[in-house]
Design a protein that fits this description.
The complex is a heterodimer. Chain A is mainly beta. Chain A contains no helices and 11 strands. By secondary structure, chain B is mostly beta strands. The chains are: A mainly beta, B mainly beta.
Chain lengths: ~110, ~110
């Protein structure tokens, strides 16, 4: 089956720093999403981004489907950005939606 | 009210007991999913359903069964719970093919002693 790999697995940053999270996938996909899981366990949709670039405030995402990767950028990090970030892909072959293992981000005040 | 509702939110049970986790949605979506989350392993797909008559196994379906009672309801059952099924379980919905933005419930934390 498809492999979805996220890097880095863990990231610790000072408040105000910028970061880039990466998601690589091994097969053709119909679409890709980024989620943030907050410390209370809620999964929050960040971006639905099959291709191209989108921005929402301090966050932006880019997906290059032909090269099988996506990037999530977080600028001017705040402590509320802490949590786990997941990417998920809808597999072209069978429409399954498969997740990576996540990047755990910890923003220090 | 939440668009995707899971019950129960927390459950502690014993090995060998039968457990059902229920999911209902008011989003009018055709597709529903059950995922399991374990620390460090992300979310793994257990079962998914594209409509009432279409149910499919995911990555880790052994030990689980599902029922799609209606478009809005999708239940996950553990026929005989075991301790390594202790996890956080999520239900999710999406509209359809290539419009598959997922929307999650708040999760059901299951502990099997």
């Amino acid at each position: 089956g498809i492999q979805v790999e996220q890097s880095p697995p863990d990231l610790i940053l000072q408040e105000g720093a910028n970061s880039t999270l990466r998601c690589n996938f091994s097969d053709s996909v119909n679409n890709l999403q980024w989620f943030h899981q907050n410390p209370w366990g809620q999964l929050i949709n960040l971006f639905y981004i099959p291709s191209g670039t989108k921005q929402n405030g301090r966050l932006s995402a880019t997906t290059v489907a032909t090269e099988r990767y996506s990037l999530l950028y977080i600028s001017s990090s705040q402590t509320t950005d802490s949590g786990v970030y997941f990417c998920a892909v809808e597999v072209d072959r069978d429409d399954k939606i498969i997740f990576g293992k996540g990047t755990r981000l910890h923003i220090l005040p | 009210d939440a668009d995707v509702t899971q019950t129960p939110r927390n459950r502690i049970t014993k090995t060998g007991k039968r457990i059902m986790l229920e999911c209902s949605q008011t989003k009018g979506h055709d597709r529903m999913y059950w995922y399991r989350q374990d620390p460090g392993l992300g979310l793994r797909l257990i079962y998914y359903s594209f409509d009432v008559k279409d149910i499919n196994k995911g990555e880790i379906s052994d030990g689980y069964s599902v029922s799609r009672q209606a478009q809005a309801k999708f239940s996950l059952s553990l026929e005989s719970a075991i301790p390594n099924q202790t996890a956080l379980y999520f239900c999710a919905t999406s509209r359809g093919h290539m419009t598959g933005e997922l929307f999650f419930g708040e999760g059901s934390r299951l502990t099997v002693l």
